[in-house]
Amino acid sequence: MTNDIKFEPIKPSDFDYFYDLRHRTMAEHYIRAGEVWDQEQEIQNHRKYLRQEGLKLIYNNGQRIGCVSVAPYKEGLRLGLFCIEPQHQRKGLGEQVVQKVIEEAEEQRKDIFLDVLIKNPVCSLYERAGFEPIEGDCSILVYYKKPCSSPIF
């Protein structure tokens, strides 16, 4: 079966799924990066995220498989809150989602920015797609990609 990746805007009724997905896929990376996943604080943060522009659910062949945010940022776009359900990871779906975001940015002639927790294995996906780290601190790396710079996938 071929993959058919689509994005749909997230709705307030999707909060429980959104928070649960982020907790299941991100809490370990927070801890590995030396951060703390404070459940009460994260619930508040995720309620704010839900109201941000560009937050979408990801579907593959009609099945909900994750979430991603693509929103205006500086003179470009910011990719964020990107999570794929664990059972769908390591199947190339993340690469396809990132490629769709890159295509959207290229159509708009926009740069793409993202930040990611250090020691998160997704860094290699971003680097294969042509993103370059431009700054960072002890827990976060910021990546950047110019429009129309070719991905390696």
Q: What is this entry, summarized?
A:
The chain is of the alpha+beta class. Helix content is 35%, strand content 31%.
Determine the number of helices (DSSP H or I, runs of at least 4 residues).
4
**What is the terminal-to-terminal distance?**
20 Å
What is the CATH superfamily classification?
Gcn5-related N-acetyltransferase (GNAT)
β-strand percent reads: 25-35%
So, CATH architecture? 3-Layer(aba) Sandwich
Category by helix and strand content: alpha+beta
Rounded Rg: 15 Å
When the domains are counted, the total is 1
Note the run of SSEs as H and E: EHHEEEHEHEE
Question: What is the number of E strands?
Answer: 7
Class in CATH?
Alpha Beta
Reported for the largest beta sheet, the result is: 7 strands, mixed
Instruction: State the helicity in percent bands.
Output: 25-40%
What is the third-level CATH name, the topology? Answer: Aminopeptidase
Output the strand order for the largest sheet.
1-2-3-4-5-7-6
Let me know the average pLDDT.
89
Note poorly predicted spans: none
* Coarse shape: globular
Description:
With 153 residues, the protein is an alpha+beta fold. The protein has one domain: Aminopeptidase (3-Layer(aba) Sandwich), CATH 3.40.630.30. Helix content is 35%, strand content 31%. Strands 1-2-3-4-5-7-6 form a 7-stranded mixed sheet, with helices on both faces. The protein is globular, with a radius of gyration of 15 Å. The model has no long low-confidence stretch (mean pLDDT 89).
How is this fold's topology laid out?
Layout: E1 5-9, H1 15-32, H2 39-50, E2 55-60, E3 63-73, E4 76-84, H3 93-108, E5 112-117, H4 122-128, E6 132-136, E7 140-145
Parallel strand pairs: 4-5
Antiparallel strand pairs: 1-2, 2-3, 3-4, 5-7, 6-7
